């Protein structure tokens, strides 16, 4: 079954509208007019209803075509259509195909941004969204700055690699309110060393330390898309939650958006791990004044009170160098960027040797003194 879609067009000139993070409005690429999100939502509420009705008629016609195709042996089999959706671009009429999680995209023929509101019906509709604040040029600039100061990065990587693809994506997240309470037992030591004649004396004192407490967390984020690497999504945090707004599809034109394919229950282990690790870190930070501190036992209890479904802005950049692909992600709100980089083995060996020599010289100086 095809999915009805709506393209947001400028009321003045019918050009495509894109959400612009800097202004917080939908802007027209052609005439330059800008509109508030609420204004366009009101204007297009009736258009979306008409689109659904028209799509229902198109679905009925397609079903008749499929029936005829089956008789001729030309239909898709169940395995081929699994996880796929098709819909028609309202601007040029092209029939587009996407996977089952795509919620917003651009028509490859006319270039107009389109959304798939059918993906966000019922329980799948996000409750919150943080709009994009930074544009594509900011992402490109951030990637170039990311290369700077990386002493083990091959010089040819910066000179030869090129951005293969850059895309703004609204990534689905679960935001969870939760609590951790419990206790941790630590073994701690204090070590001191001094010289007595020809001998170096080392004294180690041992301590048993206990900590217990309770800590609450609000809106712990975990991405809910299997397409996105979890390590990248965790690393570009935090987001500024003061920008959280009630979800509106008017924020989507000009960007891709995916619905979640990892549900709340499947996300709980990651949320629990993040909350417990944070609780352990807070308790550990209270154990001060020791040379070493090792946790020997712990008893932590996790509970959660609810989750909210939100979309977060992410710029995804893909580069290629020596037939290898390198993926980068940038927080579309704060500009924080992370990614994988190659290492120059020659530089790594030189750095290791240099560090070892410096360490050896320091040890010799200590013993000589």
Please, could you describe this protein's structure?
The chain is an alpha+beta fold. Helices cover 30% and strands 37% of the residues. It folds into two domains: 17-125, no CATH class; 136-145 and 156-343, no CATH class. It has helices at residues 37-71, 78-81, 136-147, 155-160, 230-235, 264-285, 345-368; strands at 17-20, 25-28, 34-35, 84-88, 95-99, 102-106, 113-115, 128-129, 162-196, 199-223, 245-246, 256-258, 292-321, 324-331, 337-339. The protein is elongated, with a radius of gyration of 28 Å. The model has no long low-confidence stretch (mean pLDDT 80).
Mean pLDDT: 80
Cα Rg: 28 Å
What composes the largest sheet?
A: 10 strands, mixed
Share of β-strand residues? 35-45%
Question: Uncertain regions: pLDDT < 50 for 5+ in a row?
Answer: none
> How many domain regions?
2
- Euclidean distance between termini CA atoms: 82 Å
Q: What is the H/E order?
A: EEEHHEEEEEHHEEHEEHEEEH
Label the structural class: alpha+beta
Outline: elongated
Question: What percent of the residues sit in helical stretches (DSSP H or I)?
Answer: 25-40%
Number of E-type strands: 15
Characteristic terms for this protein:
alpha+beta, ten-stranded mixed β-sheet, 369 residues, 7 helices, 2 domains
